[in-house]
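I would like you to sit down with the pair of lines that follows and say whether tokens and residues agree.
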Amino acid sequence: MENRTILGIIAIILGFLILIFPFASNFALSVVFGVAFFILGIYYLIASGNVWSISKGSTVAYIILGILSIICGYIVFFNVLVFDLFVSVYLYVFGFMIIIAGIMRLFHNGFNKGIAVLSIILGIITVFLGYFAMMGPVYVAIIIGVALIVDGFGVAIGEY
């Protein structure tokens, strides 16, 4: 088996697990993202020491990013609702960006109009997903689970 097929199967299994156990998976994802933010913060703090001789401004920026990442990691690690808020805000922003890109494609002569309309429709769907994600953690788990299953099938059959 190829690595892509194995990766696709793992994504599909994880997607189904998230759909079956939405609350536990949201908690687990919140913990994983919290740890990731915390590690990123430590990395930025270490990187700030490495650029001190090159640029004082970069050092200060790395320190600020490191401290903010550690704070975000702490908050997300201990609060699943904040994780759900991050996901829903991301979906809103991403949805509006897709809608705007689709509208721009409609008025650009070099793009296919059908793809532009499809882009607008996908943007609207993404905004609705952001709305559902704001309603509760179960919807976030459903969105992530379905996305993993769809992407898993795409990776397994070699589309991605």
